[in-house]
Amino acid sequence: MSSIDDLIRAQRHAAAAARDRMSDPTRTATIVCDRLVRIFSVAGVETQALQGLDLVLQRGELTALVGASGSGKSTLLNILAALDLPTGGKATVAGHDLLTMGAKERLAYRRSTVGFLWQQTSRNLMTQLTAVENVELPMELARVKRSERRRHADELLGLLGVAECRDRLIGQLSGGQQQRVAIGVALANSPSVLLADEPTGELDTETADEVFAALRRANTETGVTVLVVTHDAAVSEQVNRTIAIRDGRISTEVLRIPTGERGRHAVQAREYSVLDRAGRLQLPTDFIEALALKDRVRLALEPDHVGVWPDRDRFSQQEEW
Fold first, then answer.
1. 143-178 residues labelled b (16+ CB within 10 A) or e (exposed)
2. Radius of gyration of the chain (CA)
3. Binning pLDDT at 50, 70 and 90, where does residue 15 land?
4. For 148, left (φ over 0), alpha (ψ -120 to 50), or beta?
5. Which helix (H) or strand (E) holds 310?
6. Which residues contact 319 (CB under 8 A, 6 or more apart)?
């Protein structure tokens, strides 16, 4: 299947997800975070990694999560993977309440509901096994019949473009081939959600494109909801929705909307600031710097918009004093 076909199908998924968000954002959502808080305490000093974060991802979405180091994106991913517990708020994934699950439930959740793709292939794969044996392993742990394991593993390797690698040991594969096999491992038990932490971070541009194309095919063919944490602008531009996280909260979103007449394919990107459930809004940094916004701003409610201005009156009063 061509990359154009993949893009068209992904855009259709995004359009359906957008309609769901407009009707009831949480009713059909696969991932819902409501005022999520995570506080770390080291040597008596508390650090708030997540500060009341809100997030809704619909079934079948392919979304990129971007943010600077320390913004909270890895913390969020670990919570969604049930590798960490939030301090407060709510988080549900495919109907599972991540705050109330016990140890056994969390283990079952990681085996069947969510797949995880690490940046380092050494964390995703067993080097002493072949590619097909790696993909079969999660199904073996889930006690899937051998014949079904082999059939499904071959299907995944074919979908991801590495069918020719099925009988090779991991050390005999290139970095891109290893990461595509790792996607197969993450998808082996047909999870509802696939979480990917910088999946192309160790690859060159051409190989990264191949891996992400495989990830996109997996999304369109299986319908799995995919959340990719990345700092790579090229990767974030290949998805229909890019979410930026800053200071532990969602700050902006970029939605890529298909445009153009029949036979012509174009995508228009629109950037939005995100208003969370507490009514907080983060302005883009370049907006703040352009108008020298600081400390507090003046607001005005107009018939069809809200105006935001620097508090010049405050400055003039200070000068008079």
1. ebeeeebbebbbebbebbbbeebbeebbeebeebbb
2. 22
3. low
4. alpha
5. strand 306-310
6. none
CB count within 10 Å of CB 225 equals 26
- What pLDDT is recorded for position 321? 47
Our measurement of the distance from residue 274's CA atom to the centroid of its chain's CA atoms, rounded to an integer in Å, reads 16
Average pLDDT score over residue span 244-248: 91
Residues 5-17 have a mean pLDDT of 63
* Section 8-28 average pLDDT: 62
Amino acid in position 144: V
Sequence-ordered list of residues with C-beta below 8 angstroms from that of 305, at least 6 positions apart, any chain = none
Q: Number of H helices and number of E strands within the chain? A: 11, 13
Longest dimension (CA), the chain: 83
> Which of 26, 67, 20 minimizes the C-alpha distance to 282?
67
Distance (Å, whole) CA 70 – CA 215: 26
Cα→Cα distances 231→6, 43, 71, 177, 284, Å: 23, 30, 12, 21, 17
